[in-house]
Fold these 2 entries.
Entry 1:
Amino acid sequence: MSRSIIHRRRTPAGAAPGAFVTPSEGPPPVLRVVRSDGESVVEETPAGAREAFDLVAAGGVTWLDLQGIGDGALLAELGGLLGLHRLAVADVANAGQRPKVEDYGDVLFVVIRMVTADGADRSAGHDRWEQVSLFLGRGWVLTVQEAPGDCLDPVRRRLREPSRSIRREGADYLACMLLDAIVDGYFPHLERIGERLEELEVEVVEAPDETTLAEVYRMRRELMTSRRAAWPLRETYSQLLRDGHPLLTSTTQPYLRDTADHVFQVVDVIETYRELAASFVDVYLSSLANRTNEVMRVLTVLASIFVPLTFLAGVYGMNFDTRAPLNMPELRWEYGYLAFWGIGLALAATMLLAFRRLGWLGGPRRSRSGKRREAPR
Amino acid sequence: MSRSIIHRRRTPAGAAPGAFVTPSEGPPPVLRVVRSDGESVVEETPAGAREAFDLVAAGGVTWLDLQGIGDGALLAELGGLLGLHRLAVADVANAGQRPKVEDYGDVLFVVIRMVTADGADRSAGHDRWEQVSLFLGRGWVLTVQEAPGDCLDPVRRRLREPSRSIRREGADYLACMLLDAIVDGYFPHLERIGERLEELEVEVVEAPDETTLAEVYRMRRELMTSRRAAWPLRETYSQLLRDGHPLLTSTTQPYLRDTADHVFQVVDVIETYRELAASFVDVYLSSLANRTNEVMRVLTVLASIFVPLTFLAGVYGMNFDTRAPLNMPELRWEYGYLAFWGIGLALAATMLLAFRRLGWLGGPRRSRSGKRREAPR
Amino acid sequence: MSRSIIHRRRTPAGAAPGAFVTPSEGPPPVLRVVRSDGESVVEETPAGAREAFDLVAAGGVTWLDLQGIGDGALLAELGGLLGLHRLAVADVANAGQRPKVEDYGDVLFVVIRMVTADGADRSAGHDRWEQVSLFLGRGWVLTVQEAPGDCLDPVRRRLREPSRSIRREGADYLACMLLDAIVDGYFPHLERIGERLEELEVEVVEAPDETTLAEVYRMRRELMTSRRAAWPLRETYSQLLRDGHPLLTSTTQPYLRDTADHVFQVVDVIETYRELAASFVDVYLSSLANRTNEVMRVLTVLASIFVPLTFLAGVYGMNFDTRAPLNMPELRWEYGYLAFWGIGLALAATMLLAFRRLGWLGGPRRSRSGKRREAPR
Amino acid sequence: MSRSIIHRRRTPAGAAPGAFVTPSEGPPPVLRVVRSDGESVVEETPAGAREAFDLVAAGGVTWLDLQGIGDGALLAELGGLLGLHRLAVADVANAGQRPKVEDYGDVLFVVIRMVTADGADRSAGHDRWEQVSLFLGRGWVLTVQEAPGDCLDPVRRRLREPSRSIRREGADYLACMLLDAIVDGYFPHLERIGERLEELEVEVVEAPDETTLAEVYRMRRELMTSRRAAWPLRETYSQLLRDGHPLLTSTTQPYLRDTADHVFQVVDVIETYRELAASFVDVYLSSLANRTNEVMRVLTVLASIFVPLTFLAGVYGMNFDTRAPLNMPELRWEYGYLAFWGIGLALAATMLLAFRRLGWLGGPRRSRSGKRREAPR
Amino acid sequence: MSRSIIHRRRTPAGAAPGAFVTPSEGPPPVLRVVRSDGESVVEETPAGAREAFDLVAAGGVTWLDLQGIGDGALLAELGGLLGLHRLAVADVANAGQRPKVEDYGDVLFVVIRMVTADGADRSAGHDRWEQVSLFLGRGWVLTVQEAPGDCLDPVRRRLREPSRSIRREGADYLACMLLDAIVDGYFPHLERIGERLEELEVEVVEAPDETTLAEVYRMRRELMTSRRAAWPLRETYSQLLRDGHPLLTSTTQPYLRDTADHVFQVVDVIETYRELAASFVDVYLSSLANRTNEVMRVLTVLASIFVPLTFLAGVYGMNFDTRAPLNMPELRWEYGYLAFWGIGLALAATMLLAFRRLGWLGGPRRSRSGKRREAPR
């Protein structure tokens, strides 16, 4: 739970801007490089930042694909070689940044949040969110993600296929494709949430209990997390579309707009789901109130029938001295006992009839508006 | 239910932009062409994209009316011939886009959602939403809808009538008419919802039960769907009106504004209905609370009357040894039994009077503000 | 009820823009003309559109005052003579438009909603809303309202008085006066609602029942209707003030601003009333909860006192064989019966004392914060 | 109550713009004039508008301080002499305007709402709101308030002190000081509300009853009124700061900004209080639900213990013919009665233990999360 | 409590702008000066304002670090020497200002709120908020905080370290670092709140009682306070970034943007926490309703089983004269007593079965949707 709501920063408060602390746990980071010269595509795993930079310097379009932020020295060295601002490098390491775009002149820095289904548990609410930092330079793209495993494989696959246009376009096109793939990853996440909400919708109406509410509530939290990822992205894309950037050529403009459209759709879906989940609480509470009402009705019907009868039985259990002629003459009647049962049954029948009229017995009742309806169960 | 809330995309996450998967189910798409040269109007059903394009090339105003998105090859070919961007063509096939307008220079691309009453079930909440993609080029309009059956028949009819101005105007006028017809289709949809809400309003006050709430809730979902269709349309039209476009002549400007007015009205009505439906939940919950209160009151009145009496009867059913003069001398009184009933009835009467005063018996009571009012039933 | 929430359009969905259907019911429309040449004011009732137009053409300031939209031919003819756009004429006939202002170059078209108290029933919630369409041309004003009877009589009266400035000013001043009179009509309407809300405020606190809530709810609906009339008007006036128009001279500017101020005030009052009415629901629900609590307390106090006593009475009503010395020796005690009553009364007193301490008996109790307070009734 | 929510206008709907009706009740208006020539300050009480105007015409900085709007003729005459627009004069008389600033070229007209503590009752919710109209001209300031008694005395005092800068600055500085003094008056008002809210906060948690809610609700109304005064003021000041005005010299700019800061603070505080008061309703409702729960628990515990026992006692009160050996042999047992009590007490003890486990008895219980906590009382 | 919600101003309403009253309580203010000439850094504690100003005048970058606002004369003297506007000096002393930035030409004045953990009690909700006033001049920075003890120590430490860039940059860089350190201090504060919310989340679902709600409510208040500190800061930073200022060099631009990012993150977190805390109230109320339902069910089950049995026992406790053959012949049956128990047990078993079916006994029940689920406890 603490995972999604509280993000504990590793740098202490008051640390110098640009300072960062890399996480010590987790697998060691892996740096892969994919370089395309328009014709062929080469994939390599350079030994260090220097080797990676040599590949960038060799021309063409290079994608530096760093998975894991555990190696601070590597990050710093790469940053230095590529000319990244130290605040931007710190933002990469201090994951948990808000999605944003920053313009450092010849480098465009984008922070975005990526969601990937957990390997084992693919049910709603167990997806993993992580920060992806993307730097777009002249001829190269650097992406850094918090841990290995992502939703960028389709892009890698398309790069490997010889005929795809992705090989012929520039670095900005590659960056757009990567961002698009990350945003595309929101849809299966939302579909999982949507499916869970539909199940909950049935539950909340038909058989709600405390676990239902806890689940609704968990979905609301998931949606809060998604929302925090998607809303700033919306602004980010609006800004990119409005202001443009020298690094973004006019060819990529429609692709940027296409991704922006997806972001808007994501935000729409999140808002609709939030509203839906919120309405479940109303339904749940009214269902609870209904059930309390039902329980009360059972109690009242039962008590109403037996309490008067019990009183009557109590009366004829009294020990007044029946030698006085006015004291409980009924006891001496020949049919007294039968009369008692007769009166009792009549009383019970009257009561039942009255309750039936009030619609408390679950039978059909006539509503004031004149139409016949099933009474609530 | 999944129909309206979750829209499952057919393309896998991470697919290349511009990729699309056409749905395999459903009837085969039908392409019809209506061409007007200002004088006569010809309707044809071309064999393929090429034949359709020849008609466009022949001049005049041509409406390509494609019903169904099941034929990906046809879509791609048409797109190629008419010079549509492949992202736009993908948006046509990947139905479920957000309403939007996109400017591709010499083609204007509009996505809008259309609602049509289901053939069989015309009651509220069973209307079918689908995406309509409209391309406006120089001299032609292409509309693509998800399935046959729509609300564009009035436009087709007006095209067939010789005297109508629609035959003399340009392609932009035709596009405006088509969009207007689609927006006009929202009104009967909202009227159906409105009528259902009015019925529910009566129910929720007079005879609410769980089905009422479920129905209110279903209407809220319908309104969520309508809202997702209408709100982005509002922005779309504002944008069109503000920025204009070379393809839109000044003659169509008032018609555009007229449709924009209708969109604003639709949004107004949706918001009012949403507020109305939300207020029903309050009324429902208070009605439930009222009924629980009523049930409780019945129980309490009954118990309050009989519990003391039963105790009294219990007392005189005790077996104290009456030979001791202080042990239950009442039992030996000549009028003991009558006294018992007298006391009992007096007690019950007092209780009833007190409850009547509290207004628990449904009789008239005097409120603190001094005016006489009907007690709640 | 359907009156205010659903507005059923007379034109079928998909009708050509500019098409309209005039209502068939209602009294026949009346056209009156008031013409002022700065000196004298003449009132006439022309036979048809042509005669009316001749009066306009004669110069001065002419007010064409058409009451009723039942005569489509008259509307169309007037529209043609005055050079009105056919979409605007359709908006006049298809009443139920959103308030708006439209600039047709030499004609300014304003749609506004007017509220008038119903003749018979002047209580809150029975006011009649209708659309007023106002056209301002060079030297003339045309107003069309849905039915006779309005709140423009003060303007007519001022026109008849020789000394009033309204006679010396231009058509734009007249138009401003008419709009101002319509907006002024909102105030008595809101005062009626406000008075009803104040009554409801007393009721909801002192003696709420289901009719109270229904009434609160009706007021909320009234406010929804008012809001739909006032909010777009707010935008309309802001637009007029910001952009100006050649037909509006600088003299009328302060009057326009004055009316805009009134519109802002109306919106403020509506929002305050809406908030007020919404808070009544909270109060109502808590009042219900309070009453249920009160009922429960009565039941519990009663049961708590008598249930143990009844048990005790039951004990001594048992028939154990008292010949065994350990079987119910109390029955044989000389003061057993008195002891029973003593114990019983002591028990009841203890219970009552405990309940008094808990504040359940309505007597004074000491709150934890140490101050003495009246217990809730 | 009608005081703050409904403001009944004195002019009838449809009155000519610029028409006004002065209130007939209240003390007669008092006009005082304070004139400063940079050196000395003279206070006078002129006989009429003409005398007052002569003082203005004599140069220096003149403050016309009119307390009371009961004298329409005086208002009209003053307006005429000072060249005020008749709509502005009407706004002065028709108090209840929305705070605003209006630019009439050489006169700046500001409407603001002033709050003053009622002389007698200084508790929260009894403060008096009134409209202050301020006109700033070249060399003079005219303030008109609805009734004598205000929060401008500190300004008057500062004017009388020889050394204060207020005597050396221009009319715009004086106007700023007056507005600042009025805005400063909001703080004690809000502090009174804040103190009341703090008391209510304690009450609502510790000993809520219906009067608490009514009081919370009254505070909400007070805040609504304050909000209606402060929000438009916020816009007014933003507008003044943004657009400036020839009458406002650059020296007054910081003072204007200072007052704007105060207005923003006021709005902040109001919004915080509104949220706080709204949260009290939640707390109150949950407290009610808690108490109902508590009452129910007492009833249930009691009933659960005694109902089985009473049944048992009833059983042994039956009159089966004990001569049959299988009919109630327990009655004949020597220790039957003791056994009855033994069983009864064991049953009660078991029940109590079970309820203790459920935490219903108010004793300590172990929550599922394993920590020990005080059970709710 | 009054601490955070009501801020009582020390200046009386209507005081002259620029007037201020310094608090009399608290430790005496301490003025420290840190001066850096790019090479070495000197820390001094000047005797008074004049000595401090001499250090500023000596060149380099000087940080005047005044802790405590108790010495009004010192403040006024410092303000005079540094050329601060008297309104700004008043804002320093009248702590409780809204965060803002003000441009006085050659001095930039920033008000910000700082939160520091209380020394002793580091749990959530015991943090201390205070105002920090920061003046940035050419070559100097003056910070004034309400009391000693702050979160600026990391900056002081960095200044003392010879190698840090903070020594080489200008005054604007120092100001940015100070503001950044203050904003950084919000994160531990929010983390404490977040941790408390997580604990409450467990409590509210598993074992809610009144203290839980009071705690939730306290957290909501904390968040209100944080929000009032962070929201205006957001605007402040947006303004600084948008408009720039001659005193802010382009080197500090990225650091400013970095801090702005942190502010946006803080606002995001606060809004998420607010929503979370608000949802706890729903969960709490539904949990209460659940418990009432549970209590009611226990009562109803018990009553339903024993009430009919008690009636039966009552019947056979009646004293009808059994000499009449029709009067209670059961009493004379040989197995009457056994039959009574048989019937009684059968009845109880039937009842239990029925309740089990309804899911009232906590056993498994089959929901309508067909899946087996744990019944609510």
Note: Chain A touches chain E through 70 residues (CB under 8 Å).
Entry 2:
Amino acid sequence: MKYREQTIETLKKELKIEKDIYDTVLKEGINIDISRGKPCSEQLDLSNELLTILKDCALPTGPADVRNYGGLQGVLPMREIFADLLGVKVSQVMAGDNSSLNMMYDSVQRCMQFGVMGSTPWNKLEKVKFICPSPGYDRHFTVTSAFGIELITVPMDNEGPIMDVIESLVKSDDSIKGIWCVPKYSNPTGVTYSDAVVDRLASMECAASDFRIFWDNAYAVHDLYEDSTPLKNIYDSCDNAGNPNRVYMFTSTSKITLPGAGVACFASSDANIKDVLEIIKYQTIGPNKVNQFAHAQFLGNADGVRAIMKKHADIIRPKFQAILNVLEDEFGGSDIASWSKPLGGYFISYDVMNGCAKRVYELCKNAGLVITTVGDTFPYGRDDKDSNIRIAPTFTNTNELDKACKILVCSTKIACIEKIMADK
Amino acid sequence: MKYREQTIETLKKELKIEKDIYDTVLKEGINIDISRGKPCSEQLDLSNELLTILKDCALPTGPADVRNYGGLQGVLPMREIFADLLGVKVSQVMAGDNSSLNMMYDSVQRCMQFGVMGSTPWNKLEKVKFICPSPGYDRHFTVTSAFGIELITVPMDNEGPIMDVIESLVKSDDSIKGIWCVPKYSNPTGVTYSDAVVDRLASMECAASDFRIFWDNAYAVHDLYEDSTPLKNIYDSCDNAGNPNRVYMFTSTSKITLPGAGVACFASSDANIKDVLEIIKYQTIGPNKVNQFAHAQFLGNADGVRAIMKKHADIIRPKFQAILNVLEDEFGGSDIASWSKPLGGYFISYDVMNGCAKRVYELCKNAGLVITTVGDTFPYGRDDKDSNIRIAPTFTNTNELDKACKILVCSTKIACIEKIMADK
């Protein structure tokens, strides 16, 4: 239905119908959370073998004993798996503890405190800015804003961030020191950066010589369907463009094995790794190597990773499809909602009529459905259009998801119809 | 033998004997490392059950599922064990990943970047200083010097650091922001701080309101003998003195279970924990909770910790005694060497005649025995007396330890006799 073309009379009738549905839902005492990209129990069970895999393994002995101190860069077999997945050399990979967010935060903090390869520590500069393609990942934005870094919102299209805007910004402003990217199955839009976007990021002229791309490849192998959407290797692009040190790459096994006990990864040029280790050597004697070793045993190699990812996809794909089907049924051809149709990752990006997202959020919340706080997908929590809602379908079971959809749909209709009526 | 009282003739004879021994040793092609406080394989084996303990455990389900995201402060049963060991409330405990050094580094970094409970970030002050009781732990000193913090050396006696000196320093100088302490079985001297020292640290007047004691209780339960040396609860002392927020406490299971895969702990007042979580929430979604849960299952409770520590002691006590016996046999009543007789911890602090430690180090190194770099036990790697050597007996097996002692003894004698002869 094109709601904006309807008479007040029709809208009133529609509103009444939706409010009745809403009132019925209210009485059900629902409590569902689709706000965060969390795997469900069934997904976690795919890695239960990991928890006891060391019972049959011979642990390395002597200096390589993973139970003892040492090994700042992580355990070799786990680094080899990451190197293979990311298309870099093993020497370029650091395997860490369970949180790639922690590695990203620490990377920003190191730049603030110590600079990059001998550059002025960012703390000592009057102004530091980061480019934030949006909608994007809230935790990226809050890391940089915690350090007082100014966030510059740059819109996304279906090839990635708008490169004309970015190129013009970084060329002239040396206080722009970095950009946050989720290049594959982007959070929340599901977009995978095109080859052209990757190449332009790698080769663009930057006023700041210590500009770094924070390349959070969180969904590197997180395909929902048989065919994987290819992502160009940005390290190679940077290297070819004569900017081998431009990119800090991150990934983790959080959504491959266990979010609460996975292995995170930082990968970059040998020179960047050296620069970073020079500081990290003061911070720790080494990450949890037993967990890394267990992971390497469990996953085997990059193909082992891809195999388990197919099992994840089989569990979560129906959840995505259930929501997409409802949205298509309810809003296909309508003028009040549009949404992404992701081929991977963890989110559906759902845009309602401008000025209505906060109201939808409130209505959902009051009915017991928690969705990501509206605005969180933008720097400073500010969605100027008040339009974007992030839906995370994975954690919830199918039965709950039906209810969640029901609430989301009638909340959307109520909010939008009210807005249209008020505007008339 | 009182070497300094001998004639040149006797010294020459002694030197010849020791050099012959040294030459014999040289031919053996020895390669032994007693430089770091690392548990030996036999100690690590005590925790092998930990690696597979989850096979028989029911994991918590629902929101408390340790496999999934969340739980910034760590897993409750592990926090309870730490709380019991440290004598604080569970709310005051954060359980982390495997490295307490990492928690200490991050704590210093947070103070530098964000200040303490709203105080001026230390980065913005012209000067920040830390008190470093010495000899002490090299990694503490390098953390603070990495941040450009000035290190003030304060000597130790057998009750802990010299409090008269410290009280006078912190009272008048508000750029002194902290002190590093290893209060029990101190690294390397083995000293446990007396009740008076604990109380004076807790109650002393500090010019800096954001002064923090970095209380690295790394050897909290690491007794070598049946009787544990008691350490007064510094949090209670601080609280009683009206300075409840003065102390940041750290400990870990690195030398209880596995250094490469243990659980570290930060404990402090509720107000400090709140202050710290306000920043850490940007840094990570949570530590490795599966590892924490496995630890809690394996250790059971504080008594379980004490039980495993007795087994550690049984393995390493003979190593300490072997070295102490040799030192007593060779240097008892001599005027060229003295040493600590620790009741716990991981080190023997060995002092040779002033001006001889570096030469002893060189001689040992050339004969294939690696000891801690001379100077490392002091700020900036500077042992002005060139006297202190740290011995770490645990990692090596008894057979190797005999050889290590032989090298250490003849190297000491050669270095000191040469020095005495040169001085005459």
Note: The longest helix of chain B spans residues 302-331.
